[in-house]
Amino acid sequence: MPMELAPAHCPTLNADEAARLFLTDHTRDGTPVVIRAITPEDKYEMRDIYPTLSERTLYMRFFRVISAPSLEAISRYTDVDFDTHLALVVLWGPEQRMVAAGRLIRATADSDVAELSCLVIDEMQHRGIGRVLVRQLLETGREWGVNRVIALVHAENHAMLKLLKTQGYPTELVYDEGEFTVTLDTHLPPTDDNDINHATVGAMHQGIEA
Ligand SMILES: CC(C)(COP(=O)(O)OP(=O)(O)OC[C@H]1O[C@@H](n2cnc3c(N)ncnc32)[C@H](O)[C@@H]1OP(=O)(O)O)[C@@H](O)C(=O)NCCC(=O)NCCS
User: Fold this and answer.
1) Sheet containing 85-92: which strands, arranged edge to edge?
2) Model pTM?
3) I want to staple 43 with a disulfide (CB 3.0 to 4.6 A). Which of 2, 60, 78, 165 is the partner?
4) Res 209 pLDDT > 80
5) 17 Cβ partners below 8 Å, 6+ apart?
């Protein structure tokens, strides 16, 4: 049974404002990070990152092991309109190195449903960067007018499943053929209660743990 959604709240963040986002946050050990809107210039650093990614990381993100994309292909991820496609990068350390990127994509600029995806580079995984990035994507998405966020997550991607289930939003997980479609109802602000309204469909009887 799909979750019931309340009427959409009004967006407070337009595309121009989204394209100028620049925030600071901290990972769970207190390390400061910068989270900012992606820019076309980021394509060069992203091109250098792709060959360093492990097969597992690529598979978890793209559901197949892709070969390093061309600069032109990468520009589709960096030259974004912030109307239908909002992307953020996480910068780390004194050199402000790019260690993660994440995005929300929706069909039209007035749609209140967006798909979320993200990637943290291998050597920086499990330090809390994914958590701050996903939290910021969800918060920014709410301001951007998104009431429902959908992510396709491999069933073995326990870190991503945990990240999504513990953001304080009602969450529905539907299992099919090795992946979960995770839907977060973000029309209300998050609560501190991580056990709220998690519904899992299709996985239990197949012995899959979400
Ligand atoms: C999935 C991913 C985004 C998570 O980011 P991260 O920075 O590594 O994750 P975090 O350090 O923020 O940890 C997330 C949570 O998962 C938990 N976790 C990590 N590995 C886990 C595992 N194997 N099983 C269960 N939980 C796990 C962590 O304990 C943490 O929970 P906590 O904050 O309550 O302690 C990152 O690992 C990644 O980019 N993976 C490859 C690409 C990918 O999977 N993208 C998502 C596609 S939708």
Assistant:
1) 22-26, 32-37, 85-92, 97-105, 113-120, 148-154, 179-185, 171-176, 198-201
2) 0.93
3) 78
4) no
5) none
The answer as to whether 73 is a domain residue is: yes
Structure tokens at 18: 């989204």
Measured CA to CA, the distance from residue 41 to residue 66 in angstroms comes to 22
Mutate to test the pocket of ligand 1, among 31, 49, 77, 163 (most ligand atoms within 8 A of CB): 163
User: Has residue 125 been placed in a domain?
Assistant: yes
- 130 within ligand 1 shell (Cβ under 6 A): yes
Query: What CA–CA distance (Å, rounded) separates 17 from 104?
Result: 15
**Ligand 1 pocket member 119 (CB < 6 A):** yes
CATH number at residue 108: 3.40.630.30
Measure 86 CA to ligand 1 centroid, in angstroms. Answer: 21
Which atom of ligand 1 is the closest one to the Cα of 28? 33
Query: How many angstroms separate the alpha carbon of residue 162 from the centre of ligand 1?
Result: 7
- Residue range 49-100, pLDDT digits in tens: 999 999 999 999 999 998 989 999 999 999 999 999 999 999 999 999 999 9
Question: For 6-9, which contacts have Cβ atoms below 8 Å and span 24 or more sequence positions?
Answer: 6/147, 6/187, 6/188, 7/187, 8/112, 8/145, 8/147, 8/187, 9/142, 9/145, 9/147, 9/187
Domain that holds residue 158: 15-206
